[in-house]
Amino acid sequence: MDVESDELSEDGEDEELDEEEDDVSEASPPSKKPSIDISSVSFGALAKAQASMPAPGRRRKRGAEPSDEESDSDSGPEEIGRGKPKSAAEIAKRTSKHAPTEMSSKRQVSRRREVIAVPKMEVRDPRFDPLSGPVDEAKARKAYAFLDEYRADEMKQLRAEIRKTKDATKKEEMKRLLLSMESKMKARQRKDREQEVMADHKRKEKELVKQGKQPFYLKKSEQKKRLLMDQFANMKKRQVDRTIERKRKKVVARERKELDQLETRQRS
């Protein structure tokens, strides 16, 4: 009983003190605000003063420490906007490494719609565009014939570098490059010769047509035969024998391959 009476007496004293403080605050006249010329104050000082003022809202009890919620609310907009990092459990996991990754369908659809497709500007080379018409290979070869001289000079310099260099790896690379350039040069020369043979045949046929004769159009097989005859005519006997042997080996290899495929089909 004595303890309860002591607690009641203490509560009564606290209430009396609160009432006296309220009376004193009501009785005291309102203090006049100091007249300050705000235009003379710098922005930095105003920002510091605003930061030191308490945020408007609920009053905090005297002597009470700020709670975690209030400290969170006082944090800047950058901290509020930042979301918490997702835990490992929230991130979707695939059932296996071959399965596709699951994507969330809760995504805002763009309001922009492509009503009329804008034509995209594309860079094109008129030399290789079909809109410019068929390519005349003979005319193009004649127009870029000067490149053969540059290629010949490059091959000459490459041969000199191969003789000078002592690095085996670098020498092998330069030899492969030289072999590729020589092979391309031979292919161009062979193609030029084929075009000359066909142009010569067309020229003769035009002369016969002028004389009133029927033109003779060569078939593909006849064209190959004439080109082969022209090729052998410009070769020596040893070169002809070597070429014939090479072609014979190719034919034998092709026939052997076809025979193996036929046997495999019969077994299956």
UniProtKB/TrEMBL annotation:
<feature type="compositionally biased region" description="Basic and acidic residues">
    <location>
        <begin position="191"/>
        <end position="210"/>
    </location>
</feature>
<keyword id="KW-0539">Nucleus</keyword>
<feature type="region of interest" description="Disordered">
    <location>
        <begin position="236"/>
        <end position="268"/>
    </location>
</feature>
<dbReference type="GO" id="GO:0000462">
    <property type="term" value="P:maturation of SSU-rRNA from tricistronic rRNA transcript (SSU-rRNA, 5.8S rRNA, LSU-rRNA)"/>
</dbReference>
<dbReference type="GO" id="GO:0005730">
    <property type="term" value="C:nucleolus"/>
</dbReference>
<comment type="function">
    <text>Component of the 90S pre-ribosome involved in the maturation of rRNAs. Required for early cleavages of the pre-RNAs in the 40S ribosomal subunit maturation pathway.</text>
</comment>
<feature type="compositionally biased region" description="Basic and acidic residues">
    <location>
        <begin position="252"/>
        <end position="268"/>
    </location>
</feature>
<feature type="region of interest" description="Disordered">
    <location>
        <begin position="180"/>
        <end position="220"/>
    </location>
</feature>
<feature type="region of interest" description="Disordered">
    <location>
        <begin position="1"/>
        <end position="118"/>
    </location>
</feature>
<comment type="similarity">
    <text>Belongs to the RRP36 family.</text>
</comment>
<keyword id="KW-0698">rRNA processing</keyword>
<keyword id="KW-0175">Coiled coil</keyword>
<feature type="compositionally biased region" description="Acidic residues">
    <location>
        <begin position="66"/>
        <end position="77"/>
    </location>
</feature>
<dbReference type="Pfam" id="PF06102">
    <property type="entry name" value="RRP36"/>
</dbReference>
<keyword id="KW-0687">Ribonucleoprotein</keyword>
<feature type="compositionally biased region" description="Acidic residues">
    <location>
        <begin position="1"/>
        <end position="25"/>
    </location>
</feature>
<comment type="subunit">
    <text>Associates with 90S and pre-40S pre-ribosomal particles.</text>
</comment>
<dbReference type="GO" id="GO:0030686">
    <property type="term" value="C:90S preribosome"/>
</dbReference>
<protein>
    <recommendedName>
        <fullName>rRNA biogenesis protein RRP36</fullName>
    </recommendedName>
</protein>
<dbReference type="InterPro" id="IPR009292">
    <property type="entry name" value="RRP36"/>
</dbReference>
<keyword id="KW-0690">Ribosome biogenesis</keyword>
